[in-house]
């Protein structure tokens, strides 16, 4: 079976640097990525095979590589503006549902000379607070996806346990019925031979 590959394209724009100011780490966008393999298409399938995720920049250079993971969370700095490719590869024979989240954050500056000295720092703090708030939401989304995955795994395991218990009970009842039949047959033969 050939592995299933699905790709998502994400245009990333890097903001132009301020003409008079350059701040370390602000010239490029920061991309936050997370994914969680939530479930397979069958309740009887349980494995930690995971999926592969390869991220490539617009030139086709590999930015990140996750192999055989059921969940991952990482970030990277965009080096070249353009369309980035996020490719998932599923080597499992089962279709898997993947919760995938991407956020691109920018450092933005307000170039209004009359307001820079008064409002510039305030806007910067608001922007940082917005970025920090998104980081919390990003983490919360990732944890929610992890919780959903665990809930589905637990439900599938309990379903399998119930099916196994029912199967074992049916096998035990069948074995008991066969034993009763064999014992009756044995005693009927003994009674038949002792009367003669």
UniProtKB/TrEMBL annotation:
SMART domains: EMP24_GP25L. PROSITE patterns: GOLD. It is a single-pass type I membrane protein. One of its GO terms (cellular component) is membrane. It comes from the Eukaryota. Residues 5-104 form the GOLD domain. Keywords: Membrane, Signal, Transmembrane, Transmembrane helix. It is found in: Membrane. Belongs to the EMP24/GP25L family. This is GOLD domain-containing protein. It comes from Aegilops tauschii subsp. strangulata (Goatgrass).
């Amino acid at each position: 079976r050939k592995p299933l590959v699905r790709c998502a394209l994400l245009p990333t724009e890097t903001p132009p640097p301020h003409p008079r100011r350059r701040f370390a780490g602000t010239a490029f966008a920061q991309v936050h990525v997370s994914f969680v393999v939530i479930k397979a298409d069958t309740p009887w399938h349980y494995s930690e095979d995971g999926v592969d995720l390869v991220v490539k920049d617009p030139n086709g250079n590999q930015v990140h590589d996750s192999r055989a993971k059921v969940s991952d969370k990482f970030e990277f700095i965009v080096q070249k503006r353009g369309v980035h490719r996020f490719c998932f590869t599923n080597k499992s024979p089962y279709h898997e549902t993947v919760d995938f989240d991407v956020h691109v954050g920018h450092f933005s500056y307000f170039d209004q000379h009359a307001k820079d000295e008064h409002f510039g720092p305030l806007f910067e703090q608001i922007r940082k607070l917005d970025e920090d708030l998104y980081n919390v939401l990003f983490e919360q989304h990732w944890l929610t996806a992890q919780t959903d995955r665990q809930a589905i795994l637990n439900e599938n395991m309990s379903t399998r346990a119930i099916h196994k218990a029912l199967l074992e009970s049916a096998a035990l009842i069948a074995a008991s019925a066969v034993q009763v039949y064999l014992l009756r047959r044995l005693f009927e033969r003994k009674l038949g031979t002792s009367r003669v």
